[in-house]
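I'll show a typical protein example:
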Amino acid sequence: MNKSFITNFIAAVILVLGLLLGQSELATILTMVGLFALSGALTNWLAVFMLFEKVPFLYGSGVVPAHFEEFKKGIHGLMMEQFFTRENVDRFLNAGALSPTHFNLTPVIDKVDLNPTYDGLVTVIMNSSFGAMLGMFGGVEALTPLREPFIKNMKKSIIELTEDEKFIALLKKEIEQPDMMNDILAKIEQIIEQRLNELTPHLVKQIIQEMIKKHLGWLVVWGGVFGGLIGLASALIVA
């Protein structure tokens, strides 16, 4: 439900009731409460509206779309200075990101085509002193039954290697080298900048509006409530 609409509607109903009741004391109280509540709710609603929309002749309205470049720079600074800092990336690595349970290359290795590796091995063998001997027993065709077992065992060996703690430690040490860390941070920054460059004033407005509009709606509600209380106090003082 739209909190702003409901608040303004209730305030307007109270105001209309006060006006319809004539000159009685109750009518005066209802009129003052409704008037102050409606003015408080409307002004707060207008303030929220002016954050996202440009209103003619109202200086300062349309803040979000008018300053979307500054918002983009702010988002970029927030991401790079608060989240993707060198310390945070290093903490991520030290937290076990390269542990065997997290750093699993098995799916990648399973998809690697090791046939060229086998063919290279066969070429080396055939060009060696064993080539002539193998030629007497069928040459390259004699090694064909070894293709599948070779590939299977080679993948198994590579997987075991990548799961070894020493290998992971060496890889982690290499990633933590200054040049490597700078490269990682540069690529992260490039991705963030690329995504931010795709933003338009309308998209920036939508993103911010979706995040805070729900909470800003309470400004209208409390504007109506406090406006009504001020109106009630004013009516009682006058009375």
About this structure: The mean pLDDT is 77.
